[in-house]
Design brief:
With 263 residues, the protein is α/β, with parallel strands linked by helices. It is built from eight helices and 13 strands. Helix 2 packs parallel to helix 8, helix 4 packs antiparallel against helix 5 and helix 6 crosses helix 7. The structure holds ligand L263DTV3. It catalyses: alpha,alpha-trehalose 6-phosphate + H2O = alpha,alpha-trehalose + phosphate.
Length: 263
């Protein structure tokens, strides 16, 4: 069930801390907008040393997973910690300690197709100043944050044309980004449930999964955890739109404050 007014984690009431009291959190964390502030260019979204240190300490106590729309190898390099689980391309590729690994079984079909779509989308980068094509293994983003305002409608129309030519693929949306993704029943929420199952945490009542994210694609994970009360979703910088998250944090600094409280 979506809500338009999720509760602040650090509000007048202590509801979030009451919910997690006496249980071990398993932390599922989005990267952009959650662990790092949104910046103009994706390559400049570097995680702070303070956030890295907090993640390293949390990972000594809890399961910590980064669940991102970025490419898995990209986010692994950015975070740079070995004892975390990483899910990239919105969950299509996952790896973690002790040989945890999953890659979508349709790799051999999807990769050549995505390579062709990437070439088609590169035309938008050539045509419009400020457009940046962002290839991840299982998705291709078209960033338009730095495009001219008056060209955005045309960019999105050209994107729709490419999408229409490629059955089997669907559109994803995010912060000043549209993406082409495989039209398959797999997303961040399914990835979180898969990780919980594989790590033997799904049936462990002493564990409470908490997912923190800030964007459209995180709704799948909020919804997956909300179902049957499996866990808790926290939306960062809630815009007022309806969400499956139950709680909110103001910004990346408040995410860090929550981490310190959990340690
Ligand atoms: O699932 P996430 O970890 O939140 O990744 C979502 C997308 O994040 C990145 O793009 C966004 O952040 C950039 C850096 O702050 C910003 O410049 C851009 O406008 C945002 O859309 C990343 O580049 C994408 O690949 C991710 O899909």
């Amino acid at each position: 069930m979506t809500k338009s007014n999720p509760k602040p984690v650090f509000g007048d009431q202590n509801d979030f801390f009451e919910e997690v009291k006496g249980r071990k959190t398993a932390l599922f964390l989005d990267y952009d907008g959650t662990l790092t502030p949104i910046v103009s260019r994706p390559e400049d979204a570097q995680i702070s040393q303070e956030m890295k240190d907090l993640l390293a300490q949390l990972a000594e106590k809890y399961t910590v997973a980064v669940i991102t729309g970025r490419d898995m190898d990209d986010v692994k390099k950015l975070v740079g910690l070995n004892n975390l689980v990483y899910a990239g391309s919105h969950g299509f590729r996952i790896s973690g300690p002790d040989g945890l690994y999953k890659e979508h079984e349709k790799t051999s079909v999807l990769l050549p197709e995505l390579n062709i779509i990437e070439k088609e989308l590169m035309e938008l980068q050539k045509k419009y100043k400020g457009v940046q094509i962002d290839r991840k293994r299982y998705a291709i983003g078209v960033h338009y944050r730095n495009a001219k305002d008056e060209e955005i409608d045309d960019i999105l129309a050209d994107f729709e044309e490419v999408l229409a030519k490629n059955p089997g693929y669907k559109k994803g949306t995010g912060k000043k980004i549209v993406e082409i993704k495989p039209d398959l029943d797999w997303h961040k929420g399914k990835a979180v449930l898969w990780i919980l199952q594989e790590l033997g945490l799904a049936a462990d009542d002493s564990v409470i999964p908490v997912y923190i994210g800030d964007d459209d694609t995180d709704e799948d994970a909020f919804e997956a955890l909300e179902t049957d009360g499996i866990g808790i979703g926290i939306m960062v910088e809630h815009s007022g739109n309806s969400t499956h998250a139950s709680y909110t944090l103001k910004d990346v600094d408040e995410v860090a404050t929550l981490f310190k409280k959990l340690l």
